[in-house]
Amino acid sequence: MVDKVKKIWLDGKFVDWDQANVHVLTHTLHYGLGAFEGIRCYAQDDGRGAVFRLREHVERLFKSAHIVTIPMDKWTIDEIVEACLETIRVNDLTECYLRPLVFMGDGAMGLAATENPTRLAIVAWKWGAYLGPEGLEKGIRAKVSSFTRPGINMVMAKGKIVGHYVNSILAKREVMTAGYDEAILLDAQGYVSEASGENIFVVRDGKVATPPFAASILGGITRDTCLTLMREMGIEVEERMISRDELYIADEIFMCGTAAEVTPVREVDDRTVGDGKRGPVSKRVQDRYFQVVRGTEVPHPEWLAHV
């Protein structure tokens, strides 16, 4: 259950939580044409909140809308960056999760509905570790889903698109029903794509691999953060295709995403990964990530937007 806050930003105005409603004929509700972001604000050592890589997230929101031909001429990137910060301030938060959502309003029905208005909401709420605090330390159990990640010309994978997530939801529900924490999806050729909401990294013989940006994956901002930090730490990492059985013989696996942060995987398809616990590379990346997002180490001050 999401804990209510006082205000939600909706189409340029703050409205009370319970008044942030839309018509039942809202186009996105029927057809899934929309775009969204997941963004985190972290409490810093000085007591202030700082949003991690806020501008990059908002830029991707606009790019996602562009990919699916949703016009965004009502707002600029700068205006939405400031609206995100103001949503946190209005609700007196220093640590929270932010959800900007672009959606098509009501008007015409049918698939095209090119004249329907573009609408935008920004919601903030308190949200802990997506895969659980115990998962961050001990690792999670994952299973390869029977659902396949669509090919790169079937859906536009580089957009964070509302309707795309039906595929992820089905995979997530499937594996959770079977007793696992997270789903791993393969692409149409049988290579590892990503988890239901995270990118995947595999560690073997001290080297790290992750599927390339051109694969059927979302180009995660946390993925980019981890790649940057690992290279700065001198960890050898490459972007390449990964086969399913490489997961079984990996020394370590970890997933990353804004919600999941950096979460190790201790088991895949009932096969123990490495020693069955968080490995040394995963821990180094995880520790460095939390140092950076919480401002205890600031190698990239441009990544922090203070509230």
What can you tell me about this protein's structure?
This protein has 307 residues and is an alpha+beta fold. It folds into two domains: 7-125, Aminotransferase class 4, branched-chain amino acid transferase, N-terminal domain (D-amino Acid Aminotransferase, Chain A, domain 1), CATH 3.30.470; 133-293, D-amino Acid Aminotransferase, Chain A, domain 2. Helices cover 27% and strands 27% of the residues. The protein has eight helices and 17 strands. It has helices at 27-31, 54-67, 77-90, 133-138, 165-177, 221-232, 244-248, 280-293; strands at residues 7-10, 13-16, 34-36, 39-43, 49-52, 96-104, 118-125, 140-144, 182-186, 192-195, 199-204, 207-210, 237-239, 252-257, 261-268, 271-272, 304-306. Strands 8, 9, 10, 11, 12, 13, 14, 15 and 16 form a nine-stranded mixed β-sheet that branches. Strands 1, 2, 3, 4, 5, 6, 7 and 17 form an eight-stranded antiparallel β-sheet that branches. Strand 11 and strand 12 (207-210) form a beta hairpin. Helix 2 crosses helix 3. The longest helix is centred in the N-terminal third of the chain and has 14 residues, at 54-67. The radius of gyration is 19 Å and the shape is globular. The chain starts with 6 loop residues before the first strand and ends with a strand. The mean pLDDT is 96.
